[in-house]
Design brief:
The protein is of the alpha+beta class. It has two domains: 272 residues, BirA Bifunctional Protein, domain 2, CATH 3.30.930.10; 112 residues, Anticodon-binding domain (Rossmann fold, 3-Layer(aba) Sandwich), CATH 3.40.50. Helices cover 39% and strands 20% of the residues. It contains 17 helices and 18 strands. Strand 14, helix 12 and strand 15 form a beta-alpha-beta unit. Helix 1 packs antiparallel against helix 3 and helix 5 packs antiparallel against helix 6.
Length: 495
């Protein structure tokens, strides 16, 4: 290679991030906790490949000749079995499920209940907190049209989020039904698809603009503080008030909300069907022990209703959080789902009912941090065995091996630095302790253990846990046979 060749710049591709142990371990803990819940509900794990043929991804491919808008696509070899077809990295985990179900429907147990997690890729403009690669976790039931299937997904989502670490009362599953919205539109005299979408967009702004702002958007339009004008849905005053009455019906318990909704959308065939489905979901959730404080019926939930065909649900973090400027902000959605009965039909021509819930793992980790449960902060490194003398390496490895055999992560320092840099290395690794074995320790059959957790606690200036600190000397010399017990005490004592 020529010495004049330019060196490549070390840089991340836009929208892709490197993640180290703290974030990875936190996400693995979330997935382990959620997977345990999903499997207790009888859902089996499924893993599909990263690539799907582009035509299987459907609506995400507007350009059939070169399907690269929204996805990362490449063309297979012309002489391959696919005959030069385009294939793309999966955009989500639902389209691969639909393809898998259609491909294997004859041999699958029906209904088919599966959960899956893994990276997905979106060829979109990246921004703050918006990446082109991220990890999703989905759970779906394919082949059951019963509202109880939706209820079970909702109950499982509630339990999964709590198992991941969200304290009870910090999040809620909000439930609506596409059929209620359709019934409302019919009652309000809205038939044009564009006007329907404008109504949904107006309702989606209820949390931010309040009833008065939404009323303007349902009518002629709204002028915001900057002077920009947003054209409204063009409803007359009576229709706009009917929509607002619909959004205001979500008060009290689930049964009370259903009664209030019946007064707004009852009487239309589709509206009554939606009410009956929500009533069945309510009954099943009650039987599963999921009260309205964990899952409520909220008619203001409208996101994704163009995609879903029946019940739709959204998990929302209830905690007040702060933005990067320290200002209060609404964290918002941490996951969502609903019933989609048309996806498998793309492959088979036959409608197959399906319902599911999905969340982004990184976003849930961020929500946990906002809720006071930073899983990344709980990640510690291994115990570090300080290496003084090359001739004693076998002794150091024997100590590391003893700790590992006891289930304690440990490593021998394998750099070439002295004592102080080795201790700094251990601290940078967030090691709970360092083990020191010099000539004196070897001669006496002892080891010296330095409590690095205590050192970090003292350095942080924390004034509580005084009794905890008094009972833990920063450094002890103990018989070799007490090494594991001494390290275990440090690990167990961390507040």
């Amino acid at each position: 290679m020529s010495t004049d060749a330019p060196r490549p710049e070390a840089r991340n591709p836009r929208g892709f991030v490197d993640r180290r142990a703290r974030d990875l371990v936190a996400e693995r803990r979330i997935l382990a906790a959620v997977s345990s819940v999903y499997e207790r509900y009888g859902f089996e794990p499924l893993e599909t490949g990263a690539f799907e043929y582009a035509d299987a991804l459907g609506k995400f491919l507007p350009d059939a000749d070169r399907p690269n808008e929204g996805v990362f696509a490449l063309q297979d070899d012309a002489d391959s079995e696919g005959g030069g077809q385009w294939m793309a990295l999966r955009y989500d985990l639902t389209a691969p499920l639909a393809r898998f179900a259609a491909q294997n429907w004859e041999t699958l147990p029906k209904p088919f209940r599966r959960y899956a997690y893994g990276p997905v890729w979106r060829n979109e403009k990246p921004g703050p907190g918006r990446y082109r690669e991220f990890v999703q976790c989905d759970a779906d039931t394919v082949g059951s049209a019963r509202p109880e299937a939706d209820a079970e997904i909702i109950a499982m989502a509630v339990e999964g989020l709590e198992a991941a670490g969200l304290p009870a009362g910090t999040a809620i599953l909000k439930i609506n039904n596409r059929k209620l919205l359709n019934g409302l539109m019919a009652a309000a005299g809205v038939s044009d698809d564009g006007q329907k979408l404008a109504v949904l967009r107006a309702v989606d702004k209820l949390d931010r603009l309040g009833a008065d702002g939404v009323r303007l958007l349902l009518g002629e339009g709204r002028l915001d503080e900057s002077g920009a004008f947003t054209k409204g849905a063009g409803l007359n005053a009576s229709a706009a008030e009917r929509v607002l009455a619909f959004t205001a019906a979500g008060v009290g318990g689930r049964r009370e909300t259903l009664d209030a909704l019946a007064n707004v959308v009852g009487g239309s065939a589709e509206g009554d069907e939606g009410l009956a489905e929500l009533a069945a979901i309510d009954a099943a959730l009650t039987g599963l022990g999921v009260g309205p404080d964990r899952a409520s019926i909220d008619p203001s939930v409208v996101r994704g209703l163009e995609y879903y065909t029946g019940p739709v649900f959204e998990a929302e973090l209830l905690l007040q959080t702060l933005d990067e400027r320290g200002q209060p902000m609404r964290f918002g959605s941490i996951g969502g789902g609903g019933r989609y009965d048309d996806l498998v039909a793309r492959f088979t021509g036959q409608q197959v009912p399906a319902t599911g819930f999905s969340f982004g793992v990184s976003r849930l980790a961020t929500a946990l941090k906002a809720a006071g449960r930073d899983l990344a902060a709980e990640v510690r490194g291994p115990v570090v065995v300080i290496a003084f003398d090359q001739a004693r390496m076998a002794d150091y490895f024997a100590v590391a091996g003893e700790l590992r055999a006891a289930g304690i992560p440990a490593e021998v320092y394998l750099g070439s630095s002295g004592m102080r840099p080795q201790m700094k290395y251990a601290d940078r690794r967030l090691s709970p302790a360092a083990v020191i074995i010099g000539d004196d320790e070897i001669a006496a059959g002892t080891v010296t253990v330095k409590d690095l957790d205590l050192g970090r606690e003292l350095a942080s200036g924390v004034t509580d846990n005084a009794a905890w600190r008094e009972q833990r000397p920063g450094q002890v010399n103990v018989p070799r046979g007490e090494l594991v017990a001494t390290i275990r005490k440090i690990l167990d004592a961390r507040p």
